[in-house]
Amino acid sequence: MSDPFKQLHDAMDQFATERDWDQFHSPKNLAMALTVEAAELQECFQWLTEAQSKELDEQQLAAVRDEIADVQLYLIRLAGKLDVDIEAACRTKMEKNAEKYPAERA
Fold first, then answer.
1. Is residue 17 over pLDDT 80?
2. What is the pTM of this model?
3. Which structural domain range is residue 64 located in?
4. What DSSP string runs through 45-86?
């Protein structure tokens, strides 16, 4: 896991340990929580037009930032539980996508 992800992973581990939440943080539960947080992010844009979604006011942007952080933190926690290196997984997936969707065919 790269250093920024490792630092966040360690901080999340400590946060959960201090609250005795590790007992609830199975991969299944973390995946479900991640989905809930992604839905909360989606809710920030519900009923906005395309144009409005690009011109958020400070209150809307603060809510989006919070939900993006929640999604990222649960993802980091889930990756840690499954010993997945997020950066390596993303690079591998990008390589697969480049093969599947070559630029010259776009």
1. yes
2. 0.90
3. 3-105
4. TTT--HHHHHS--HHHHHHHHHHHHHHHHHHHHHHHHTT--H
